[in-house]
Amino acid sequence: MTGLGLVTAAGCDRDSTWSAVRAGRSTAAPDPLLHGLPVTLSCRVPEPDHPVLRRRGAARLDPVDRFGLVAAAQALEQAALDPREWDGSRVAVVTGGGVGGVRTQDEALARLGEQGPEFVSPYFLPGYLINMTCANIALRFGVTGPALATSTACASGTTALGLARDLLATGQCDIALVCGAEAAVTRLMVTGFSQLGALSDTGSRPFDATRDGFVIAEGAGALVLERPGHAAARAARPLARLIGHAASTDAHHLVAPHPEGRGAEQAVRAALADAGVGPEDVGHVNAHGTSTRQNDAIEAAVLRRVFPDRPPVTSAKGALGHTLGASGAIEAALTVLALAEGVVPPTAGLAATAPGTDIDVVAGTAREHAAQVAVSNSFGFGGHNAVAVLARP
């Protein structure tokens, strides 16, 4: 990994996001656009301002594509990669997202109902389709290698990382630009999650005794991955290494995790095996940690079984909310930053760990903790599980 970019409710850049997560500062706030709904909290991204959005046509893009482009541009800048100089056929783009351009969909549906079909914009489908974040990134940066969009619900960003790693390992590209992006804070999406009992209107408190759901969020995370030889040839400074990845499926329920966490545990153990490391080698865990009662309890049980040495655990969702399909990429980037600084960020909102949790969840302030290897978990509706193992360069 040679570059990363972040767009979150804490700010449209890496430093703002990392500062909020490192400080354990929640970005949740009452959302006027959700007035009248059972849940009115969200973590919205401030309007991004970046040169990549000053090109013709950018104003018509759905926010999910705008967020993705900004995060991708930041990652390329840090990696010191100039798309004007690369061979685009040796570059891949892999994106992860859960729902696509739902704000564009809402606007088109309103026009259809209120004014008729002739008033629906011809830009509706290019703004709504779930592959368009991937397509826009490829178009903007001249990528003519594989361009693939993954959708495994809240595991999407981590699924995209694994697919990109495979493209590099099989020689299909030298550079892979990975991006998870989501902009699903709409009245309909919030209502849908609320009807499932998944949302909180008091705040996200992963692993806390009083947790009652997550705060829905939007954002994007991007990472540049390169074949080691390619990075070395251009004297690129590596930030971290993606040394392991695995995925599994619960085959249990459409929206509930397996009660014993079998699929999640399978993915964690397989990712460690892929990385060639043991549980004792893992210095900290970036948990999926959604702040829902079921997920946190089941994930804690999995972590107890897999990691008897009890490495420090954190969840960024207390600070940033749940960015759904973008969360895996955002949290992988945060894990890279944690490894680089030798800290484990606190879990924002955590006041008293739920009884029986029995894992070492960091709370209050960031913990100085030098680690060589860390694990980042992502689990999603549909029983999708994806786990990444990251290491210092």
UniProtKB/TrEMBL annotation:
SUPFAM superfamilies linked to this entry: Thiolase-like
Record key words, sorted: Acyltransferase, Transferase
Identify this protein by name: Beta-ketoacyl-[acyl-carrier-protein] synthase family protein
Name one matching Pfam family.
ketoacyl-synt
Under the heading PROSITE patterns, the entry gives: KS3_1 (PS00606), KS3_2 (PS52004)
Say if the entry is tagged with keyword Acyltransferase. yes
Natural source organism: Streptomyces flavotricini
- Report if keyword Lyase is assigned: no
PANTHER family xrefs = BETA KETOACYL-ACYL CARRIER PROTEIN SYNTHASE, POLYKETIDE SYNTHASE-RELATED
**CDD domains (UniProt xref):** KAS_I_II
The Ketosynthase family 3 (KS3) domain covers: 1-392
What family classification does the UniProt entry report for this protein?
Answer: Belongs to the thiolase-like superfamily. Beta-ketoacyl-ACP synthases family.
**UniProt-listed InterPro entries:** Beta-ketoacyl_synthase (IPR000794), Ketoacyl_synth_AS (IPR018201), Ketoacyl_synth_C (IPR014031), Ketoacyl_synth_N (IPR014030), PKS_Beta-ketoAc_synthase_dom (IPR020841), Thiolase-like (IPR016039)
